[in-house]
UniProtKB/TrEMBL annotation:
ATP binds at G167, G168, T169, E215, Q216, L217, K218, G295, G296, A297, L298. It comes from the Bacteria. Forms membrane-associated dynamic filaments that are essential for cell shape determination. Acts by regulating cell wall synthesis and cell elongation, and thus cell shape. A feedback loop between cell geometry and MreB localization may maintain elongated cell shape by targeting cell wall growth to regions of negative cell wall curvature. GO terms for cellular component: cytoplasm. This is Cell shape-determining protein MreB. InterPro entries: ATPase_NBD (IPR043129), MreB (IPR004753), MreB_MamK-like (IPR056546). The gene is mreB. Its main location: cytoplasm. It is found in: Cytoplasm. NCBIfam families: mreB (TIGR00904), PRK13927.1 (NF010539). GO terms for molecular function: ATP binding. One of its GO terms (biological process) is regulation of cell shape. It comes from Planctomicrobium piriforme.
Amino acid sequence: MLNRLRDWLCPDLGIDLGTVNTRIAVRGLGVVLDEPTVLALERKTRRVIGRGAAIGKLARQMVGRTPDSIIAVNPVRHGVITDFELCEVMLRYFFQKASRQGGGFRPRCVVSVPSEISSVEKRAVYNSVERAGAGRIFLIDKARAASIGAGLPISEPLANMVCDIGGGTTECAILSLGESVASKSIRIAGNDMDEAIIDYLRQHYSLRIGRPTAEQLKIDIGSAAALDTELSSEVRGLDSISGIPRKAVLTSEEVREALGECLWKIVNCIKASIEQCDPELIGDLADTGLTLTGGGALLRNLDLFLREQLGIPVRLDSDPLSTVARGTSICLEHLANWQQRFQTEGAGF
Ligand SMILES: Nc1ncnc2c1ncn2[C@@H]1O[C@H](COP(=O)(O)OP(=O)(O)OP(=O)(O)O)[C@@H](O)[C@H]1O
């Protein structure tokens, strides 16, 4: 009875604390919050503007458009917390939005983290989530959460490979019999693709553009392999020689060239995790293939490109942006059975 009241007043939460976006799932309800991982602050006082409400979507609208007195801060970089205080403020705000929280109860939380972060970095996630209002906290590797969210049969004696390409990290893992048998994580992902487009325009067009414009170009005309009909887009920026605003037309072939280095690093990350694997399991991958998750996996023709480079089937999850959060939510439903597999304070780090 008390447990049911507790569940009603304060449901368990699954959290994907991402570099670009934070998603929260409530046990039994799925993903209920999807907000950018950003806060807008008054520069002098470092107080969140809008009476503490300029967090997430509202703050994101301000990125690159703020006057000097206001700054937009992202408290997570490459999946690692870089500003503990702000991360705690942001999470407390998101918890309140995501659940009704009452009766003095604190929600149990399953939180996804990159696989190759240090124990100090894991503790930072643990402490921030705890101070934001969580009760018991369980950490799970992002790639494992992604494989669960994508519905891969990871408990079977068969290799299943997943690659989550987010904004700040690419996480690749091969799982069999419920355990990770190989994994590799690199701090290259969607944000680095945006930076590569910024560099390309600076070098080839002497044009300076901001991060949001670069991201939009990537989404609008970016691709990893040739398109049936190539695309183009007009881009506005600042001429770095004359110092006045100017337009240029960028093609999808040019964006592909700009993204080349990032894409090869991702291919090498996937190959490195395959190389760690037993040959028997590598054989399975010819059938089970690779499942792509994370926002970066939405790049056009990435599945085609990876299929060509790796020689195995590649499929994109049906809703790659929310796969990890869905995975944490499934973990909540099986918390009693699975909790010894999660990392908890004192046990896993
Ligand atoms: N259609 C698209 N094409 C290419 N990239 C996209 C597309 N949609 C979103 N992205 C990119 O996906 C990234 C965000 O993905 P996601 O929300 O999974 O990352 P995250 O969880 O915040 O990051 P991380 O897991 O690395 O900490 C951004 O870089 C964004 O530009």
